Amino acid sequence: MSKFYYFFLCFCFCLNSFGQEKLFINSDTEIPLLTHSHNSQIALFLNLNYFNSIKNSNPCEFQMQLPFFEGDTISLYLESFDVFTNDFQLLRNTENGLVFDDYKPVIRSYRIKNSDGWTGSISFMKNYLIGVIKKAGEVYEIKYFQDGVYILYDVNASVSESNFTCHTDTDAIVSPNNNAQPVQSLGGPECLEMGIEIDNYTYNEFNGNCYEAVEWSLALLAGVNEVYMSELNDIVTLQARYVNVWEIVDNYDPLNDCGEMLDEMPNYWTNPPFDDIYSQTDLVHLFSQKNANGGIAWVGALCGGVFNSSTGFGVTSGLNTSLIYDYPDNTPYSYNLSYLGHEIGHNFGSPHTHNCNWDADPSLNFPGGAIDACSDVEGNCNPPNNPPNESWQQSIGTIMSYCDFNIGITLEFHQIVESQALIPGVNNASCLNTCDDLESSCGNSIYGCTDSIAENFNPEANIDDNTCQYIYGCMSPNADNYNSNATMDDGSCICSGSIDLYIATDYYSNEVSWELIDDNGLVIDGGGNYFQGGELIFSSYCLAEGCYQFNIYDSWGDGLSSNNTAGNDPNYYIYHDNASCVDGSVIPGNYVVQMDNIDFGSESINEFCLIICDSDNDCDGICDEDEISGCTDSNYFEYNASATEDNGTCLTLIIEGCTDSIACNYDSESNLDNDSCEYPPNNFDCDGNCLVDTNNDGVCDIFGCTNSDACNFDEDANIDDSNCEYPPNNFDCDGNCLIDLDCSGECGGVAIFDECGVCNGDNSTCLGCTDILACNYDNFAIIDNGECEFPIINFDCDGNCLVDVDCSGECGGFSVFDECGECGGNGPEQFYDCSGNCLLDLDLDGICDQIDNCIEDFNPTQIDNDGDGYGDECSCQYIDILGEVIVEAGTYHVYTLSNTIDNMAAWQVDGGEIVWSSAVEPPSIGVQWFDIGLGTVSITQYFGVNSNCIVELDVDVAPSSIKLWENFNTANKQIIIATDMLGRAVNAYEKGTWKIYIYNDGSVEKKYELNK
């Protein structure tokens, strides 16, 4: 009875303590730095027992206290939700074709609600959990480190930068003119059933473990789903209907751009066997770890499966496959949620926040156009102020923006995105069904009896309503009134085998231990490790009939004999309170064990037996109910060996002797033959008289075998009766083998043991690999069969690597991280750092000095028209001046460069005058020569920093061959060329402009003719 109540109280305590346990406590474990500051992260230790309790009981809701920064603690209320449908199906593309796997995901996800503004999600995986908590734009993540230690850290202080790029073109997207509000439908949220595709590249990142890849994808979807539910007021929930895993090389394998992967998706999903599956989904999204330039999705792509549309898809690449600490890649789980949420947002119908087509929202004083300017605006509008200074702008990065690159993520949608795109997208999606009968795997709140031992136990119930019904009775198997049907002990047990165990120790109770053992050596109970100062032990037990040991030990070796008794009367005993017979008298109870020596040394071993009787009136040690009546005297024929109680039925006294009347010692009084009869030899009577003498020779005839070699030779026989018996070959008459036995025990046989030790064997039973270094070494093999198998070099037989694993994961490989942190890489390109920047670039033109053809001059194009190895920006270009080199004084000539030049340049003429210069290419000038002698035409090029070069053409100027008077004779003077001031040909007779006239006599004239 006392033991039952103890158990009951313990059970109640355990129930109460479940609600009081903490899932996490602070830890002082040294943790790696995931953020830019130690102040942005703390270490937590997971209560593994509580973690497993939550996983096993799978509650629909519970509360937890989470240690937070600066010694604070936040209280979070968590509510269960399923991220996969009730009819979830795993698809596996294998070498044997498409396999429908009935795998049941193990992930259990909870969302944070009603927690003083905190939201987020925590997903319980197989051996760890992953969580995100967020409030007012701040995002924190709980990530597993090692040995039960987790890291709670500020995501926006992470050392891992977000570099995701969305390639969805939303320039032409016009957001629906519908400022809808997030109002949940009366029937519950709309269910968006997704198809998730995992490419072969990502499957291999999980070392070919399909199920781990599935759990990873569902963990990502769980986090994204919580964002959509929280942000859109539970009008929609995202659930995985299918997960399709490529375990073989797929069509995405050669593609390295997310846009190409998006184009490839319809080739699978709109054709058999996937078209029927596609029709059962509202959206299909490819989750890939491959770095394929970010993500891309069709805008407004919901319900594509219903119409077998080629646009019902999205791709998110570059996802981190590890949900735990995994140096050096520790991309926050939250980044994955932001990336996926962004691309799914496009599927819902949302453009980017920097799109120009958002409608005005007077409630937010939003004028329309782009919401932010974190990227170049899409469309034709003026970008809003950056940094933001309007109430409708946000200084933190919402999901459909690019603001997270510089500011950080929030895992929130902008109000305008929600009202003008996401909510209308849900409302306009005809394929979405109301989740009226959505059941969480935690089981909806079903009240009933949850105690499995109760008669009305309800296995479907998850909330106990105190209606459990039991069968009450005695539940002690050794009790007289044991009820095997009872489910609740009512304290009614009656035990004939009840004993009381008592120990009173001396002061040194810390030296005492004891045990009660049954006859099978099993310990029923025991005690020890008591505090010093004396101890009283009293316990009652209900034992079955049988023999036991009560052993008491003293580690000091003086029993209970100390002079310091701590006020006790040192003693021990076991009292059996059932009636028993002692010295021929029946007493109500007795001591079956008593202390006979207080100084028993190190141990006192006490055996005792319990005989449980209703009564034993004759004190014979046999219970009256077990007595068997009969003749108990073994000297009588009526004797019954089983009889315990003589009933006077012994009638015939046994007289032993020879009962054969023809025997010489026959006893007519004997009634039980004792094999003592004696008989005369053949042909003689009992008195030794001869009864047969056929030849009357006075010798009594004795028939028998007269051959002394026979086994039955009779030395007394004088007449052979032809019945001599001989032994088989190789045996004597006693059956003994006279030669060697073979291994089978056959006398004179030829069987021998083979090398395996098998008699008459063929050596086949001990064949095997005898090389101890082989993986299939057979310790019992004696003969090597030549089939030893050895491990691959550097591996043991279990496939474990015995040497170092290189950075690529190859056992014994030689790959190492280069200075850029790339495994097996060759380091940065020569002259560049790991980011592709020049190590030396004095002119900052992006061309490294070691290969720059103009080290000090900005020339990113590196043009070198003359091919001299020096760029045109820092060298003199090779040109020639073309024109007459022998001229007459007073004549006019044109000089032109042999080719165009990029350098700044200036003409110079010595001995003449430049009358015009041309703006067309190649450059040219008009020169009138005056000074007789050596003239020069030169052009100076300016390049680099204060550098120049001069190209010259020498011209011989001869005296004019025209007579002087002819110069004044203008009768035959004619204009041969008319140009403007830039040397361009013009109409010689046009009025109102400056013109230069060149005459046939070599003279030049500049005129301005007025309009008249």
CATH topology of the domain at 38-434: Collagenase (Catalytic Domain)
**Unreliable segments (pLDDT under 50, ≥5 consecutive)?**
1-20, 171-187, 436-440, 964-968
Strand content: 25-35%
Provide the helix percentage.
10-25%
- By secondary-structure content and strand pairing, the structural class works out as alpha+beta
Work out the radius of gyration. 55 Å
Mean pLDDT: 86
For CATH, the homologous superfamily of the domain at 38-434 is named as Collagenase (Catalytic Domain)
Number of helices: 9
Distance between the termini: 138 Å
* SS elements, strand count: 50
CATH architecture of the domain at 38-434: 3-Layer(aba) Sandwich
Topology, pairings included?
Layout (H helix, E strand, L loop, with lengths): L1 H19 L3 E3 L14 E6 L1 H10 L3 E7 L5 E9 L2 E11 L2 E5 L6 E8 L2 E7 L4 E7 L2 E9 L2 E6 L35 E9 L1 H6 L4 H22 L4 E11 L11 H12 L4 H5 L4 E5 L7 E3 L15 E4 L16 H16 L66 H13 L5 E2 L12 E2 L14 E2 L7 E2 L14 E2 L8 E7 L7 E7 L4 E5 L8 E7 L3 E9 L16 E6 L3 E3 L2 E3 L2 E5 L8 E8 L18 E2 L14 E2 L9 E2 L14 E2 L29 E2 L14 E2 L46 E2 L14 E2 L96 E2 L3 E3 L3 E6 L6 E7 L1 E6 L6 E6 L3 E11 L3 E12 L5 H5 L6 E5 L14 E6 L4 E5 L4
Parallel strand pairs: 5-13, 12-13, 12-14, 14-16, 18-19, 20-21, 32-33, 34-35, 36-37, 38-39, 41-47
Antiparallel strand pairs: 1-2, 2-11, 3-4, 4-7, 5-6, 7-8, 8-9, 9-10, 10-11, 12-17, 15-16, 22-25, 22-27, 23-24, 23-26, 26-31, 27-30, 28-29, 40-42, 42-45, 43-46, 44-45, 46-47, 48-49, 49-50
